[in-house]
Design a protein that fits this description.
By secondary structure, this protein is α/β, with parallel strands linked by helices. Helix content is about 50%, strand content about 20%. The chain contains five helices and five strands. Strands 2-1-3-4-5 form a five-stranded parallel beta sheet, sandwiched between helices. It is globular and about 35 Å long. It starts with a strand and ends with a helix.
């Protein structure tokens, strides 16, 4: 199974890639929200992890686009704990999981496994 990571952060990519490898999940990194929407159009991908620090990101618009393309698609958002407004906006947008960066770093394997083994909201 495959999961998309929408991020330009090489540290987040490294952590997510390591967790994905341990779970036998293929992680595909993209840097543009449109690429994440395109990936959601194929059954090959089960979910997306969105870095809330991505410049110019409109989380509400992106979640709406992803849900319009495919209703059963896991959407995970993560960002620094000090970016409370971004984390709150991700919750309000309807992300399945919203985690601080520390939570994602600690629980990345379980979060990715949940994406591929479950149906999205």
């Amino acid at each position: 199974m495959n999961v998309v990571l929408l991020s330009r952060d090489l540290m987040l990519l490294s952590r997510a890639q390591g967790a994905a490898n341990k779970q036998g999940i293929t992680l595909h990194n993209v840097v543009d929200p449109a690429q994440a929407v395109t990936a959601a159009q194929t059954e090959e991908y089960r979910g997306v992890v969105i870095d809330l620090r991505l410049p110019g990101l409109n989380i509400s618009e992106l979640v709406s686009q992803l849900r319009a393309v495919r209703d059963k698609f896991w959407i995970v958002a993560c960002g620094p704990h000090v970016h409370e407004a971004s984390l709150s906006a991700a919750r309000e947008a309807g992300c399945d999981i919203v985690a601080t960066r520390g939570q994602f770093d600690r629980d990345a394997e379980a979060i990715l496994q949940r994406c591929v083994n479950s149906e999205g909201s």
